[in-house]
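Suppose you are handed only these lines of text.
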Amino acid sequence: MDLLLWDKKFSVHNDSLDAHHKQLFELCNEMFKQIDQESKTPVYSTAKVISELHMYAIFHFAEEEKLMEKYDFPKLDEHKKLHQGFIQKLAQLKEQYESDDVLVDYDILNFLSDWLIYHILEVDSEYIDYINE
Ligand SMILES: [Fe+2]
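From them, the structure of the protein bound to fe (ii) ion can be written out as follows.
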């Protein structure tokens, strides 16, 4: 079972950015699977996924910001701040998981998946008309 299912409504009408968003969903789904098998899964597995999510989000946000910049998206600064906040949160989670004293939990996963869903549908959707001119 997956936590996040890709659907056309998530499309920002840009193949490359859609592929990135799908990959972010996949990483959340992977983390969901780790949590599902909590008793059988060593903590390092989740730390690894969080670390991948952190790295991939940095890569993806940079690509997205480059495009928004290229097309003079007016809310670029605001958008960048939201990205930075998410990266900070992921960095903090990564540290916590790597230090081994935090157990995986659904609240964190829900926070991550809710953030992504909201961000793509409500925030990323604002740049669609700009970057696809
Ligand atoms: Fe974004």
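What can we learn from it? Residues 107 and 113 are 10 Å apart (CA to CA). Residues 64, 79, 83, 119, 123-124 surround fe (ii) ion (CB under 6 Å).
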